[in-house]
Amino acid sequence: MDSDTSWRGELTPSLSLSGMNSQQEMYEHMNSLLRTNENLSQEIVNKNATIDRLESSLQSLNKELYELRTRVANQTKSTKIDKQLSATVKQAYASLADSEKFHLAEHFLSPHNISTKTQLIHIIREDHVTYTDQQLNDHIRAKYTNDRRRDKEVSSGTTTAARKRKMNARRHSAYNSRLTIAKKRNMHTNLMAGLTAHDMSDHESDGDDQFIVKKPTWRSEQVDQALKQLDNFAPLVRKRVNGSPSKRTNACDN
After folding, report:
1. Taking each helix axis from N to C terminus, what angle separates 160-185 and 221-231, rounded to the nearest 10 degrees?
2. Which of 41, 48, 171, 203 fits 197 for a cystine, CB–CB 3.0-4.6 Å?
């Protein structure tokens, strides 16, 4: 709310002290200065109250954002890979005609690929009715993702070494981003000082505008929570989906 600032004219009274001869003029001038002082003090109080409200709102917003991101992360967490179901998906996929298999150049949710997924679910459910829709969807998508990645590697000539270099660059980028946030926000600075880029998760693109995140097996839950808090202050470039654990070994163990 805008306050009345008409009193600001009283900061420069028309009469100077040297020109005041009567006691009445002095009293009037003193009262004018007192009013100005009171108005200035009130404006400072109002502005401080506004700043307090904004800081409180920002804290509430950050808390709600953290809780929302945590819920989204939990909801999008991939089902633990079931080796038996993976083998079943591969067997069912092999039974499809070439024209019925995934179009790997298309998005997983393209009409053709949705049709392929529906066929696979139908084939698998004929013998395995205990699997949930989420389990089937996750394992079929994993099959599509792996096939698509291999197809892109073959067509582009991408080597295993090149993939490793790309993931290594992403780990360093993630570490530097979190370290910058930690120093700027003065939070988890000691923890970040004890970590390196090797401790960051592997981020592998699945070609669908999202990263499959593979967490190192040696990293503790406490460290995971600290990194998530730092990530709340970083822009989310791509959606992240938790995948199987990283197969990398701890550098400290070597």
Report:
1. 70
2. 171
